[in-house]
Write a structure and sequence with these properties.
Number of strands: 22
Distance between the termini: 69 Å
CATH topology of the largest domain: formyl-coa transferase, domain 3
Structural class: alpha+beta
CATH superfamily of the largest domain: MutL, C-terminal domain, dimerisation subdomain
Largest sheet: 8 strands, mixed
Number of helices: 18
């Protein structure tokens, strides 16, 4: 009895559809790109139930005559290629031979279309393998309605996330399409309410339209001050908008790369972008909107069925072009900065009296539960009397440690029973605050502080959706966020926060955590709390006094894990007396 057999079409079509249609957003991407390939100047998207119940895309592009409508849902049917070699000559988004067929395999699909000037249109409907067609009103353009996504593959519905998350993904697809098609009007409605509207830009200059559309999608706060790059080289046309060196958000979520108007995810281009910046502040990431025009045979878009990844024929050239253009734009921007020279005081004027030294701020290192880290144990501490408090020592002096000083205003050095103990002051303070906040959250005691005035946080609509979808979880961390205009208003923040800029940075970091597909809930919880601790903790290069150094050391001793910060970076380094003797090759030292 043979074991190998050909699968029925209704089975293999559903399996193949999974490579193209993973969620409502991937379905929307295919439909929008078909509309743009048809020359649409208007694309309207309407979603119900986050696209699961229905997703409608209406365009005013070239419609199809009845014969094309009858074929548009057929397998291997396309208007884009005739022979295999056409794959290397495509100037559209792709041959899309499987898109509508794949969508019809996992949803109930109706396509209505008519060419401009036609006396009648045509409609085709596919549902559960049955296809019907007939005449329809002669409305120029094409309308695709997909209903009951995964109705015949219910297991795939279980892999979809919350409605808020899926609506955010739909908004992100519209934003991406809008960024590189500034001459096209896009609208997006969710549950009957308009979420996005981008009117066509028509300044008469292509790069100006590109810049205006970026501001419309990203908002003035993120898009304001971006450096323009518009270069044409043999085989490559590059248009980029990138952050100046001194104005970068705390999230890498605002980086967009396009090749021939196709949104792509490219580690190569992202690395080239960061290479162009060279040194940059820790935790800061540039905003980037980069659109490249290449010859069709200079890259391969068929690396993955979703066509999100591409392979460049000359990857080294692309890397050098991007990194070089970014570095050059940053250098020019720096050279154009005005040089501010302080006026010298007049000779006749007496110098102003030196201000009295400010009182040292109260240290803000707070501890959690008792646990003595292994590094402390390795110091082989002798009796406390070995470094007993000297006569007249202040009450906060803590034997058997003796504070020796601060190196580069970043590292605190202690003597301990003949050895040395070094703390990274930022990593140590971050760990202390992190454990305190985690303890508060576990006890349900996370403290929140109502703001006198709401803090505006400008984000793209897709990011706003993602944040609001987790509003209750963020509230348990101490945040209260409300939609306001195109962005958000923060009305309350964790009690340890005091500066509006920190609130914005934290929201940006939360966007990153929300987009992490791996254990999203845990990622948000850990990352948000770790970020709060990072922003509230003392920084490298902050001057610390002796009292603050001792209190930080004592607080770190009480942490469950004082060896590293919550991001995994080492917080302490210990060199006991035996290690010091070995390093200096002293007689009697224990050999390595």
């Amino acid at each position: 009895m043979p074991e190998i057999k050909a699968l029925p079409e209704e089975v293999f079509s559903r399996i193949a559809a999974g490579e193209v249609v993973e969620r409502p957003a991937s379905m929307l991407k295919e439909l929008i790109e078909n509309s743009l390939d048809a020359g649409a100047t208007r694309v309207d998207v309407d979603a119900v139930g986050a696209g699961r119940v229905s997703l409608r895309v209406v365009d005013d592009g070239r419609g199809m005559d009845p014969e094309d409508v009858r074929l548009c849902l057929a397998r291997h049917a396309t208007s884009k290629i005739s022979v295999f070699e056409d794959l290397d000559r495509l100037t559209t988004f792709g041959f899309r031979g499987e898109a509508l067929y794949a969508i019809a395999a996992v949803a109930k699909v109706t396509v209505t279309s008519a060419p401009r000037g036609a006396e009648t249109g045509w409609r085709i409907t596919a549902e559960n393998g049955k296809v019907t067609n007939g005449p329809a009103p002669a409305v120029p353009g094409t309308t695709v309605l997909a209903r009951d996504l995964f109705y015949n593959t219910p297991a795939r519905r279980e892999f979809l996330k919350s409605d808020g998350y899926e609506r955010g993904r739909l908004a992100a697809i519209v934003e991406e399409a809008a960024l590189v098609n500034p001459g096209v009007r896009f609208t997006y409605k969710a549950e009957g309410r308009q979420v996005l509207r981008f009117d066509p830009e028509d300044s008469g200059e292509a790069f100006r339209d590109f810049d205006l559309r970026a501001a419309a999608v990203l908002g003035d706060e993120l898009a304001g001050g971006l450096l323009p790059i518009d270069v044409e080289r043999p085989g490559v046309r590059a248009r980029l908008l990138v952050s100046p060196a001194g104005k970068m958000p705390s999230s890498r979520a605002f980086q967009y790369f396009f090749v021939n108007k196709r949104p792509i995810a490219s580690r190569l281009l992202q690395q080239a972008l960061y290479k162009g910046y060279g040194e940059r502040p820790s935790g800061r990431h540039p905003v980037c909107v980069a659109a490249f025009e290449l010859a069709p045979d200079a890259f391969d878009v068929n690396v993955h069925p979703g066509k999100r990844e591409v392979r460049f024929k000359d990857e080294r050239q692309m890397f050098e072009i991007v990194s070089g253009l970014v570095a050059s734009a940053l250098a020019k921007a720096k050279a154009a900065e005005p040089i501010v020279v302080a006026d010298a005081p007049a000779a006749a004027e007496a110098p102003a009296p030196a201000p009295a030294p400010a009182a040292a701020p109260e240290p803000h290192y707070l501890g959690g539960r008792s646990f003595f880290p292994e590094e402390f144990k390795q110091l082989k501490l002798g009796p406390a009397v070995a470094l007993a408090a000297p006569e007249g020592a202040p009450a906060w002096y803590t034997p058997p440690y003796r504070f020796l000083g601060q190196i580069e205003r970043s590292y605190l050095v202690f003597e301990a029973a003949g050895g040395l103990f070094v703390l990274d002051q930022h990593a140590a303070a971050e760990r202390v605050l992190f454990e305190k906040l985690m303890d508060e959250l576990e006890r349900g005691e996370a403290k929140s502080q109502t703001l006198m005035l709401p803090v505006p946080v400008a984000l793209p609509a897709s990011a706003v959706r993602a944040v609001l979808d987790k509003r209750d979880r963020l509230k348990r961390l101490g945040f209260e966020l409300e939609p306001y205009g195109k962005g958000l208003h923060a009305t309350a923040i964790p009690a340890l926060f005091s500066q509006a800029d920190d609130v914005k940075r934290l929201i940006h970091r939360a966007v990153d955590a929300l987009s992490d597909p791996v254990d999203e809930a845990a990622a948000l919880r850990h990352d948000a709390i770790a970020t709060i601790a990072c922003k509230a903790a003392v920084k490298a290069h902050d001057r610390l006094g002796e009292e603050e150094a001792y209190k930080l050391l004592e607080a770190l001793k009480d942490c469950r894990d004082g060896s590293c910060c919550p991001h995994g970076r080492r917080a302490m380094l210990a060199l006991d007396r035996d290690e010091l003797a070995r390093r200096f090759q002293r007689p009697g030292a224990v050999p390595l």
